Description:
There is one protein chain. The chain is an alpha+beta fold. The chain has eight helices and 13 strands. It is elongated, with a radius of gyration of 22 Å.
Amino acid sequence: MARWRGAGGARGRVLALLALVTAAVLTFHSAVPDAGGRLGSLVEAFLPWLGLAVAPLLVAALVRRSAVALVALLLPALAWLGQFGGLLLPAQSGAHHLTVVQHNVGDENPDPAGTAAALAAAAPDLVALEEVTPSALPAYQAVLASRYPHHAVEGTVGLWSKYPLTGVRRLDIKPAAIGEGWSRGLRAAVRTPEGEIAVYVAHLPSVRIRPSGFASQLRDESARLLGAAVAAEPVDRVVLLGDLNGTVDDRGLAPLTSRMAVPRRGFALSWPASFPVARIDQVLARSGAVPEIRTLPATGSDHLPVVARITWDPATGARPDSRGR
């Protein structure tokens, strides 16, 4: 029987080095430079998938019988668990204050009425939609009206609510390079049983992977504008629902994720619907937590809907103080 080798030769050392690099990227991904082709943002967009590198490295280490490589593989495994292991845990039981559904319904959705019915079946308190076309809007309104009598639509985004809406306005999150007629954001105050909350619905610009790199400049600019709007929001409790065209690990969304709580449980990969690889449909909260997020079955869209629970910090209330906090 062949013996296990300490380093496993040159190939064993290479395997150990690859394991260390994988662990370093998982742990210190913010240090990956973004200059040029925005490599750092691209890595962060698919960061959980780096865990898949452990499997082939493990097989290679076993074939090489390299003890050093096997020990080194503990580092990326532990780094991945530290970063994403909590998302795998069962949802926490207990009371919550709000249930919300977020869905990019797709501007070519062949069945808007069926999509609306599927979302309402999840019994949320709020329903946020993006890519709502003028031709499909009547179908969404007709199906959702009985359960959600309060609604607002600005451009291609809409919000349907069980509770009264006030202070509805369009959000100016349009990047400077985009022409007129682009309207993808709204803000509304919702009068819930726990008090008033501010709800933001947004659809940030798409990103593309090109030969020159990760094209996220427009998305990043829009995220900065949206982050500034949330920062200036006078109502303490805030919910952000939207297709942000980025994951919560992506540094391009830092103007939002640095100010708001992200989901604690559930990967809820939402795009593309046929084979989801990333959650770009987000539910974020300020002065509260998002203890659980999950996907709903596919609709006629190229995105999967996500449903999330939100709980509020007991110390926060509906009325801001003189500083707007």
